[in-house]
Amino acid sequence: MSSDVKSRPATPMLREILEQPTLLGGIRSTPLPVRLGLAVFALGFLVVNVAIGVLVVSGRLDGHWYDFRDLGNATAALRSWLDDRDLGPWLSYWVTALIGGVGILSFVGGVLLIGTWVERRLLAKFQIRRGPNRVGPFGLLQPLADALKLIQKEVLIPIGADRKLFFLPPILIFIPAMLGWGPVPWAPNMAYLDVNVGLLYVVAISSLAVLAIFIAGWSSNNHYALLGAMRTVAMMVSYEIPVSLSLLSVVLFTGSLQLSEIVAWQSTHNTWLAMILPFSLFTFFFSSTAEINRTPNDIAEAESEIVAGFHTEYSGMKAGLFLAVELGNALLVGALVSTFFLGGYSLFGLEEWIPPYLILFAKISAVYFLFVWLRGTLPRFRLDQLMGYAWKFLIPLSIAFVGISAVEASIFARVDAPGLIVLGAIGIVNVVLTFVLVRAWARVVGYEVPRGEDTRPTLTTAVGGLRAAQRLRVTP
Amino acid sequence: MIPEEFGRVAALTAFALAFPALPLAASYLFYVLKIRPSNPDPIKSATYECGVEAEGSAWGRFNARYYLFALGFVIFDVEVIFLYPWAVVHQDLPLWALAKAALFIGILAFGLAYAWRRRALEWR
């Protein structure tokens, strides 16, 4: 190995991963009519946008049913229209409930299809492969082909299994994944289920998944499945406590359990709670990866130890449903992280211009990208490490930070100064405290990272990472 | 009077059940139309444990350490949920309420320290 290869950066640059060199070349090689059509489309897009801008500035859009920035206005208008027809109050109620339900259902379904493709493509980029690229343009139809394949696969039920219970989990496991979307506010008036105890509802719903997973593992009558289910249940209940404790800090500052109120608080104070409560954000994110069984905490489905964990015995579409719900849960956690910590649908006043639901979707996508990145980067932890991390590291520190944020919240409520200054000071103090306490507690508990020559990633340094791989790629 | 959100939860639950039921129904339809094969035989539907024959049923005794963690979860999670009502009204309370909350959080921390001391948190 020559010395110039060794000096190259060890990790692949983000830019190189996201780069699509074929895109520009593709536009250049398109025939003239297509390019003219694209130009007309771009011009029309510009004109429509300017017209919308004029409408927004003049305020002729605010609150009308055609205010596209908040789809809740349209359903509210429909509801009042139905109420005026005197058809009974239940009709308008159920019609809007059905519209919202269909909206959530189609959103989750569509995003599952796209998300599968995105995850596989991104993972391929991280691992220097090409990923699915045969079915449809850029392999976009691959998820549909997968679904079709899974539907026509033979469904095997093991002889020893409890057949009635065995049938339930693939259906039951979708209940927490779908119900969790209910209280997420997409725009000021666009929440399907704007309950005043939204945060408690989310915590309660997210722990329901344990039941479906345990039923799956128990009814299979398979040692691996039962072991995987036991591990999952132990891990999920352990990480439930850090989740509740980290969300407690959020409630201490916002003073409300309503998700739309939490977003409104961040919007009016022009901050993200992530800046004020960095440790809570980390705890919530890390514990959520455990709750939804994603890397680095996917010990439930550790292929090298227990085949596929609790869904070892499932085949055909049922296995596909388990895989789909894992992805759906990742997106749901993305929505919750954005709502609690990243300002939800608000973006420092930009939500007047861009539809708020697009802002939230962008934030969800960012968190989801982080999930995929982690999956492509981190190895999985051992079970005893995970349990120790939850009980001896996250829970004591979370309790400490609940006390700290209680003191800070009472200071914030009493000090007579501009909110942004107080919150900024609190944020700086919390960042310092997070750093100091995490280091100190790690030293006390003994979770210190050993330093030395051996801990350097020698393989990537020697081989040269993505750049070297691209250099070595043979062009036909 | 039931709050109106409960009906929406019910509607969403119905959708959550319909979402996985649709592909499963399609799969069953394929079976009825004889597109999807279904030829069970004893070896194919044996319990899959990496090719080795399964030793007895999986429905037996299990390690007690999982039970300890479940107990810990019940205690701590219920205590944390009790803190939520306090957190909602915290900013409107007088300062001495903070001391009472500190007492409650202290009990929580003491319970954790006790469990730690009794080696209940070791994964043995």
Provide an overview of this structure.
The complex is a heterodimer of chains A (476) and B (124). Chain A has helices at 3-6, 14-18, 21-28, 32-58, 71-84, 89-126, 142-151, 163-167, 169-172, 174-179, 198-206, 209-219, 223-254, 259-268, 273-276, 278-291, 303-306, 317-341, 356-377, 383-414, 419-445, 458-463, 465-472. Helices cover 68% and strands 0% of the residues of chain A. In chain A, α6 (89-126) runs parallel beside α19 (356-377), α13 packs antiparallel against α16 and α16 runs antiparallel to α20 (383-414). By secondary structure, chain A is an all-alpha fold. Chain B is mostly helical and 124 residues long. Chain B has 2 domains: 1-56, no CATH class; 63-124, NADH:ubiquinone/plastoquinone oxidoreductase, chain 3 (Methane Monooxygenase Hydroxylase, Chain G, domain 1, Up-down Bundle), CATH 1.20.58. Chain B contains 3 helices and no strands. The longest helix of chain B is centred in the N-terminal third of the chain and has 28 residues, at 5-32. Chain B is flat, with a radius of gyration of 26 Å. Chain B starts with a helix and ends in a 7-residue tail after the last helix. Classes of the chains: A mainly alpha (476), B mainly alpha (124).
List the helices and strands and how they pair.
The complex is a heterodimer of chains A (476) and B (124).
Chain A: H1 3-6, H2 14-18, H3 21-28, H4 32-58, H5 71-84, H6 89-126, H7 142-151, H8 163-167, H9 169-172, H10 174-179, H11 198-206, H12 209-219, H13 223-254, H14 259-268, H15 273-276, H16 278-291, H17 303-306, H18 317-341, H19 356-377, H20 383-414, H21 419-445, H22 458-463, H23 465-472
Chain B: H1 5-32, H2 65-89, H3 96-117
Helix pairs in contact in B: 2-3
